[in-house]
Amino acid sequence: MPPSYDFAAEIADCARAVEAALDRLLVEERLSGPGPAARRVVAAMRHGSLNGGKRLRPLLVRQAAQVFGVPAEAAMPAGLAVEAVHCYSLLHDDLPAMDDDDLRRGQPTVHVAFDEATAILAGDALLTHAFALLADETCHPDPTVRIRLVAELAAGSGVGGMVGGQMRDIEGEKGGFSNGDIEVMQAMKTGALIRASVRMGAILGGADPRALSAMTAYAQAAGRAFQLADDILDVTATSEAMGKATGKDAGKGKQTLVAQMGLEAARRELDTIVNDAVMALRTFGPRADGLRATARYFASRNS
Ligand code: GRG
Question: How far is the CA of 283 from the centre of ligand 1 (A)?
């Protein structure tokens, strides 16, 4: 990593590379199996994954891998797998049975542009394809590493991770959540995939158990910072800036830390958490500057 690390250049470069790779991969020829890929589902997968998105999870995979000297291109297939899971989660989250949103990344959501059944299937197909990307030899030459990546992504996205967090979030709309309940829900719903991204980068780089545990501590703090910033933005940002509806948490009686502790205390807490994330990386030196910058970006972003 060069002495003066340029975060703006790296996030832009990563977003460009992810967009181009998804554009190449999400086509009928590449997605066909025993039968030809269903054209309408592929079109909905493309609608739900192309043209937008900050691509923060592939960025985290790449930056975590970079700590162990892995080049950005070698971290791309694993990053794409996490992004495919993330896009599926947004697509399903927007459905009428969940958050019922019409706008995502400044465009009509997939069930609005297509229909509900197609949106469900497109989400399912993105989730399934994520694991095909990890199983492919281009992801890593060593099958043991590929299996660890599969297990990591499954744990982060499944019922003990993102899906379980989403269930808790829905249950929490009835009220009665303590601050601790909210933290567990958020650590699972949003934090688990961020944690998986960082750990997958570290696994690609062959991190030893001590390094993996430091990276995990970073990831957990960064995930909390990301979610707290998202809750703050839901109160303070416009829907134009966010490319999606804002002010929905309070409207639905959603349990957030901002609602519990107030805006000013939430902002102070955010500073503390970012500091925790940066401190977790103290043993890594300049190669971890990317991860440090991303934790700071999570707290300062305005979209
Ligand atoms: C439906 C199984 C299932 C899970 C949904 C992640 C999630 C769980 C729902 C998304 C709801 C939401 C808006 C959560 C807040 C945090 C979040 C994931 C924001 C969107 O992520 P960004 O900012 O989005 O990385 P982009 O558009 O940049 O990819």
Answer: 31
